[in-house]
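DUF1330 domain-containing protein
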Amino acid sequence: MATLLIFHEVDDVDHWLSSPRRQELFGPMGMTVRTFVDPGKTNRVGLIIEVPDMDTFQRMMESEAAADAMKFDGVRPDTILMLVEPEPST
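Structure:
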């Protein structure tokens, strides 16, 4: 399981928060999502996503369904910043 921290801007924070698209996209693939908003009332939002594996996540993010969901949610793709929790070293 990989943990991702993703930040990006959206056109309308309330619309983004209430959108069912995240669950529709991530849920069936076994991914869980927690949402966060900037308390400074900007359009910056964040996600913590638990994904079964990075390959599945990458394929999903490159899909037309993901592009449609981002467009519906008002995500500004050029603002996406993704961080991946590193694997523990052995």
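The chain has four helices and four strands.
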